[in-house]
Amino acid sequence: MDVEPIDDTDSEQLKMLSRVGGIVLGRRTYEMFSSYWPTVDPADEPVAEWINSLPKHVISNTLDSAPWGDVTPAIIEKGDPAETVARLRSEVEGDLIVWGSLQLTDALFREGLVDVLRLRVVPSLIGEGRGPTPADIGHTVIRQVASHAGPGWVTIEYQVTNRDDGVTSGA
After folding, report:
1. What is the value of pTM for the model shown?
2. DSSP string of 118-158?
3. Across 18-43, average pLDDT
């Protein structure tokens, strides 16, 4: 597949990453990311520099180590995913971002720990899959707060509101 690299027209993605203090990944997404991002030239993919330099936390009860190419390895976070992310929210300076990791995000949605849902639409069909939220979260109010478009992609950001009390989720 021939895909256009992210270029300087994707300045919103880079601006968002400048506010991030840590990346949280589930085990499967970690395995995909760690086999790709450490080898990417930042001249081709400007986000690679951010992804490779930010602290990474892998939620896994099965991994014992999480190497990341030639840079600092990811930190293994064992235990309950929601409790771990709640702890990280208080420890990490800056935003936490979860990429992919659908089982992890399911748990975070169920516990009201998702503040922003950022969907990036790219022109690629994989033939199967599922939505970005668990089927059992019920009615949850989201409000579009931003959108950005580039050559072949659209990013839409939504603020997530706790379905029980109408306030933004999380701490």
Report:
1. 0.81
2. EEEE-S---S----SS-TTS---EEEEEEEEEETTEEEEEE
3. 95
